[in-house]
Amino acid sequence: MTLRLRQWGLGWAILGAVVITTPLACSAEEAIAPNASPTPISSVEDDGFQILQSADVVYLGERHDSTADHAAQLEIIEGLYAENPDLAIGLEMFQRPFQPVIDRYLAGEISEEELVIQTEYLERWGFPWEFYAPFLQFAQEHELPVLALNAPAEITRQIAREGLDSLEGDDLRYIPPLAEIDTSNNDYREFVAAAFGAHGSHGNFNFDNFFAAQVMWDETMAMTIADFKTANPETQVVVLAGNGHVIYGHGIPDRVARRLGEDLTQQIVLLNPIEFFEEEGGVIADVFWYSD
Description:
Elements: H1 2-8, H2 12-15, H3 28-31, E1 39-41, H4 50-53, E2 57-62, H5 67-83, E3 87-95, H6 99-106, H7 112-118, H8 121-124, H9 133-142, E4 146-150, H10 153-162, H11 186-196, E5 201-202, E6 205-206, H12 207-231, E7 236-242, H13 253-260, E8 266-271, E9 287-289
Parallel strand pairs: 1-9, 2-7, 2-8, 3-4, 3-7, 8-9
Antiparallel strand pairs: 5-6
Helix pairs in contact: 6-7, 10-12, 12-13
């Protein structure tokens, strides 16, 4: 199960723990899905990079513990900024109540150390700060907005334990209305179940509640992106999130499109893919990015 967690970037805040395992390795030939046709890119100089430059929203699906993925993300962000400085960065790694703290850091009012402490980054995310510091530094240097995308961990954990119906009052402050929480995608449900090796209820673990929490996580990130794009329609948004939240569009992208309309152009980038993907139907991502 820990391997699946690391591979897909699912459920960290829900389970209340961060598990890091040794990264897998395989050849580029093994990485490409037999039934997928993403554009392969390995540099911002590649012709295929133009499809990212023209997108309204670009999703960079990462393995959270991969230094290669984070290096690729920074290269992509720098490349997009060079073409269009009207750019915002959305981060799964920060939860919505801490947006004012990020804004104070970007304005130069608090230090990077204070940012880490006041966002409770180490407690709520836990991967080495060095993985994500460059994105905040780049945003501060170039005066770019940074979006804290995620739902509060307290809320997702409560849903996982007690279900959506347990939420009330202030629980609803940072999340979408419950009527917008769409758990009807059976393909996504099966994917999440397979990633956790979980079906139905086992002991104290109720998969229905867990999946609802996962979807709440996705819907909150999608709402945050959509609200920002509505207010800033010309700004390109680059989203850093676990690859399980973006592949096939099931997690975040389809939910952003539902809010903003199908005319929205989105590109899903899977960074350094390392496994076969055998699911029938649909393309897992628009781009496979291979680090040199």
